């Protein structure tokens, strides 16, 4: 028998489901028992809560099985708590590799954080950002003028990246998406697909006049002057999905929704 841990969002549906799982399967509430060793972690909530929990438990390297108690639930399994141990044992595993975001700010402060979905750069004020884009030490865009730019993982390619006009990326594609946000110049540039090993560097031009913030998933660093992004292949996040609703199939299906 696997030891199943569980975390739940604050919504009524998630909390009610948590109580039901504790009653039926004797799962461990990891919010109350933070140091408990478990074989699998069940996450109850939506995609936003799942993203927070992926960051929270990233060092545990414990497989994570999500049950959708939210709205979209792209990273979750369909809501069903019947025969949960059997469903977990029969689930397929997908491994996600996060991006590392290294930033340097106007005040000289440096920091590093991880992004599972995307790293995004946004203008902070009314004036458009000016950003120089360098890939593997080669300047590809001397000056991008617009609202900003983002780098998305395959798992994050269906989220903000897709809304901004970027491509949906299959999990096994070994590429990342580079997508501009409301670009003014160059007007016809729609972005690029890069090898997952690529090192992406952004230099903020006229940073005193056109301040820019960098966001790794939900962590924001303001007033950056340079941002370096690379995939952390050594970090592997195991996600479990029901066989009939695995993440690879969802990403493929998203490309045929119109």
Commentary on this structure:
This protein has two domains: 4-96 and 236-254, Probable inorganic polyphosphate/atp-NAD kinase, domain 1 (Rossmann fold); 99-231, Tumour Suppressor Smad4 (Sandwich). The chain contains five helices and 17 strands. It has helices spanning 12-25, 47-56, 84-89, 160-163, 247-254; strands at residues 4-8, 28-29, 40-45, 64-68, 92-96, 99-105, 110-115, 118-123, 129-135, 138-152, 175-185, 192-195, 200-205, 212-216, 219-221, 224-231, 237-241. The strands form two sheets. Strands 6, 7, 8, 9, 10, 11, 12, 13, 14, 15 and 16 form an eleven-stranded antiparallel sheet that branches. Strands 2-1-3-4-17-5 form a six-stranded mixed sheet, with helices on both faces. The longest helix is centred in the first third of the chain and has 14 residues, at 12-25.
What is the domain total for the residues?
A: 2
End-to-end CA span = 43 Å
Shape-level CATH architecture of the largest domain:
Sandwich
* Number of helical segments with 4 or more residues: 5
CATH class of the largest domain: Mainly Beta
Report the structural category: alpha+beta
Report the count of strand segments: 17
Helical content class: 10-25%
Q: Summarize the main sheet.
A: 11 strands, antiparallel
N-to-C SSE series? EHEEHEHEEEEEEHEEEEEEEH
Question: Hey, roughly how much beta strand do the residues contain?
Answer: 35-45%
């Amino acid at each position: 028998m696997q030891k199943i841990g569980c975390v739940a969002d604050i919504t009524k549906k998630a909390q009610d489901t948590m109580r039901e799982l504790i009653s039926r399967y004797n799962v461990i509430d990891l919010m109350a028992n933070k140091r408990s060793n478990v074989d699998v972690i069940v996450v109850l909530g939506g995609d936003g809560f799942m993203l927070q929990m992926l960051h929270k438990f990233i060092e545990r390297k414990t497989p994570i099985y999500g049950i959708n108690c939210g709205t979209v639930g792209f990273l979750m399994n369909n809501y069903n708590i019947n025969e949960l141990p059997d469903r977990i044992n029969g689930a397929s595993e997908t491994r996600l590799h996060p991006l590392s975001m290294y930033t340097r700010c106007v005040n000289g402060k440096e920091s590093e954080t991880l992004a599972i979905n995307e790293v995004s750069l946004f203008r902070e004020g009314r004036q458009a950002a000016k950003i120089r884009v360098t890939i593997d030490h080669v300047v590809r865009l001397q000056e991008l003028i617009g609202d900003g730019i983002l780098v998305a993982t395959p798992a994050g390619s269906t989220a903000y990246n897709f809304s901004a006009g970027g491509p949906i990326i299959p999990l096994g594609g070994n590429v990342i998406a580079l997508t501009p946000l409301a670009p003014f110049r160059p007007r016809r540039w729609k972005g690029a697909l890069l090898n997952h090993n690529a090192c992406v560097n952004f230099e903020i031009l006229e940073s005193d006049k056109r301040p820019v913030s960098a966001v790794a998933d939900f962590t924001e660093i303001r007033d950056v002057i340079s941002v370096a992004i690379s995939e952390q292949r050594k970090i592997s996040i195991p996600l479990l999905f029901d066989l009939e609703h695995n993440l690879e199939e969802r990403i493929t299906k998203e490309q045929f929704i119109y």
